[in-house]
Amino acid sequence: MRLHAICLLLLVVLGCGGGGGGGGSGGSKTGNITISGRITFDSVPVTQASGLDYSSTTQKPVRGVVVEAIRVSDSSVLDSSTTDSSGNYTLSVPENTEIKIRVRAQMTRSGSPSWDISVIDNTQGRALYVMDSESFDSGSSSISGKNLNAPSGWGGSSYTSTRVAAPFAILDFIYDALQTILSVDPDVELPELRINWSPNNIPSTDRDYSTGHIVTTHYSFSTGEIYVLGDEDNDTDEYDGHVIVHEFGHYLVHRLGRTDTIGGSHTLSDRLDPRVAFDEGFQNALSAIVLDNATYIDTFGAKQSSSAYMDIEDNDFYSSPKGWYSEGSLQSIIYDLYDRNDEPNIDSISLGFAPLYDVMINDMKTVQSFTTIYSFIDSLKRRYQGNTSVINAINQLLQHEDITTQAVDEWDSTETETNDGGNPDTLPVYTELQQGAPAVKVCTSTDFGTPNKLMNIRYFYFTVNTSGTYTIRAEPEVAQNDPVIALYYRGTVLASKNSGGDGTAETITQELSAGTYVGEVSEVKILNETETGTFCFNMSLN
Amino acid sequence: MNKGYIKRLLLFISIFAIPLVVLSCSDSLNTQAGSTDVSSKPTAPVSISYQLAGPVKPDKEVTITIYIKARADIDDLLLRLKASEGLDITSEKNEIYMDQLKRNSTATVKIKVMALKEGHHLLKIILTGKINGNTIGRAIAIPVSTTEAPERVQKGAGTVTTDSEGKRIIIMPAQEEGD
Asked: Which of B29, B122, B174 sits opposite A202 (nearest CB)?
């Protein structure tokens, strides 16, 4: 009897636990259980009047990021997944294992489409941001509702704990940008992108990424990466969606399309080098398109409670000049080409994003001139050749921004532009050189400031019908002038020259195939910002 | 040991007007004339530069001269000053108001600071103003490092380690239900 009792007891013990798991959905393979949950982050909204509104913080889903199950004992990855558009994830892990859930500040997809976008800390050896749960035992039953939130770190009047949300806030805006691109280019293959953010990233006067001296939020053409300010009570940008998407736009056009911008700082008040004006105007418009919000807001200041903002659509905002050199003009043109919000006598066109993207990413790669509003509009009009109502509507936008509607090509070769920004020497936009013809005077100037302003650099172009050796010459008009010249073919620099000093002509002698080429001429003193004034050169082609 | 020597400097650094010097001395290929390698976020039409009369030593007052150049007509210009921990602003005011600054004109402001200890300190300046009634703003951080400042050690937002593939990660704690 006693033996029977013992056997019975043993059977009961052995029959309990282990095996297929009671309750829950069970594991996806023998010995595994499923863990599922939702990943969120503290989203702090921006306001037009008073910076970040921490009191209106909501928890938004962390979308499209990598989630891992980590075995605590050896830090190995047991399973990996990607959150869906609601922030949900599911992972399969062995039973009865000490694990933790890790959310990487990384969105990655291979194949077509593809991307690999992550947020790293440039002041901590470029470490990738990850958010970890506490360790826990996976047990023998599936676990649902393993929800994790990335907190903002805000303690009511300052940041009092780790700003976990920041990298995920940045990725949230990038996710929106990705969806916008995928809606028009479903097979896009984006190059790797690293976005650098740190609370140590300050608006310094020098640049040293390893110490967080990033000057301002920007895209670097040399590293191909974005750098975002995180300086509490001074300037933080992780919640400023328009700022994030603006920089993403620079990456997109630079890595996927083509831009001839010379970069540098820019404001709506400036009369800019036309390449800068166009690139910056396009990215401002892109931010409004992606976020479906034409009010661009940049928060800063004590407790992040100040806002600077601009209305992308309304170019009568601010004291922005109008013209082909104005970031304000070009952002409103691009946005008005896109949006459905028609304005009487100004905007009667709603092209959507697809044609703008196609022109920017595809057509502009092969334009012969520089990437300016002229080459963009020329390419766009070619796509709608014969469509009178679209062409007229485009012209209406140009006219409102005081840009010629009569340009016959990307060069405005018949010189129809009359808006000279206040200096008649600004025009023509491109000076045509003809082989063997008398030299043509081209003037550069600091009238509109430096270093990337209108007239700091002037453009010329020419066409050769046969292959051969050609010489472009820039002769200083007076002995004090010192020219720099550069020659390009469809965005690629072929040669540049500045080997002489004041009063010395510069020449580029180059073997060229038949085709059309574009070039720049500028004055050394303007580029070095050592003098102000007007500096003219006589340009010739032989 | 980072001996941040601050000699008498004349730093007319226009933060967002970085000198563009890309020149070629031969027929070799070069980048675009006058280009920088960055495209930044839109900024306010005002340049800020400074001159620090050093050297900076603990408990010794130094003067920082701020030059504010307007690139448009700006009304209600206000400078707010904030020092990082370890630095004191010894000037009378932490807020300096200027009624208006006309386009292409420059305002000069002198600020006195004192480092309380060796280190790498920052004087943060937040400038706001209005153009056509719309707010503009610019923030900068001026480094004020003492001559005997130790090597800079910066803390990130989390704990730096490596993952199972040996790649550097910075771990931040999640907030879990029930926390």
From this structure: B122
